[in-house]
Specification:
Elements (H helix, E strand, L loop, with lengths): L12 E4 L4 E5 L8 E2 L3 E4 L1 H6 L4 E2 L5 E2 L6 E4 L2 E5 L1 E2 L2 H4 L3 E3 L2 E5 L3 E6 L5 H9 L1 H10 L1 E2 L3 E2 L2 H5 L2 E4 L3 H39 L18 E4 H4 L1 E4 L19 E2 L2 H6 L3 E2 L4 E2 L2 H5 L2 E3 L3 E5 L7 E4 L3 E3 L3 E5 L5 H10 L18 H6 L1 E4 L2 H39 L2
Parallel strand pairs: 4-11, 5-10, 18-24, 19-23
Antiparallel strand pairs: 1-15, 2-12, 3-6, 4-6, 7-11, 8-10, 8-12, 9-14, 13-14, 16-26, 17-25, 18-20, 21-24, 22-23, 22-25
Helix pairs in contact: 6-12, 10-12
Amino acid sequence: PALRFKGFTDEWEQRKLGNLVTFSKGKGYTKKDLTEKGVPIFLYGTLYTNFHEKYDDIHTYVKMRSGSIISNGSEVVLPDSGETALDIARASWISKKGVILAGGLLILYPKDNISSEFLAYSLTYGRNHKTIATKAQGKSIVHIHKNDLENIFYRYPRNVNNQKRIIKILDKLNKCILLQQRKSKQLKLLKKAMLQTLFANKIAPQLRFQGFIDSWKQRKLGEVANILRGASPRPIKDPKWFDSNSKIGWIRISDVTKQHGRIHNLEQHLSKAGQDKTRVVYPPSLLLSIAASVGYPVITYIETGVHDGFVIFDKPKFNVDFMFFKLQQIQKTWNKYGQPGSQVNINSSIVSNTKILIPNNNEQLQISNILKKIEKCIHLQQGKTKKLKNLKQFLLQNMFI
């Protein structure tokens, strides 16, 4: 491999996988067999839809049947079919004893000179992964058979200590990623709780900063800002509307989701002709999506052309950050304007006539400041998680052949 631990210089061996493991196949269970209590089971669908290299915390249960395959904590499993070859070429280590291994799984029992956990990683990443993918057969659904796996030339370090070192660092990374994800989740829950308690549903919120006692006032959104709908040049894909050298950006809903509603850069930029066919706003401006993905609040920090899938809060009489968070709090309320099974769309009139409770400017500032701090912590935490995942991906690409 390109990256190795100090002291390990031997070339990796190449042997047929059938010489290193014994094979079995899971017995038939489906989701219909699931019960609230019973024996834990690992289903094919779990691996296929929620892949993870290691499974030791299984909360799906069924009733025991005769002939069921029960784990002893050393099995590696692969799906025997999938939509693509790469879906098949991924393995998991069942590290927990007493788990039923269901149908749709190929089960591998490693022999003494190879670690189960290492086997799961090495079958899923690097050259072994690509080799398995080439053996998959089929069109709409691809399959792989035990005989095909047995004859794969599998590459691995024969030195078990080398295998352990690789697994140790990957396990540590997985734990770090999990901890960072938990922190992000806790911060998101904190923000959700603050949105519920810092904003009033009646005359005052449940939680207030010291010194604020006045009742909140009910206002229509159209009373505290001019609600203007954006405009779009047509046909929208015509290249004459765009110019990569322009300073005026063109916002799309994908920009909103990528940047968490706070727009600092945009991929597309409008030509002079495109600018004449839309509404251009200047920072900071508050927008709200009203079509397709409805109810996403947006603050733009750059000059932006706004298409007709957004409304603009022009000449606002409120703290922009406060209203950004308030619109997040009421985001789901827009769903009532959609028909069952259809896409929700709202218009500037609906937004204008929507009533909210709003405090004085000083209280708006205090609320927005605390929520911005929590929001910043969430983004920093997500950035740490992304860096750790990138590091893990780098190691997986370079620690295996």
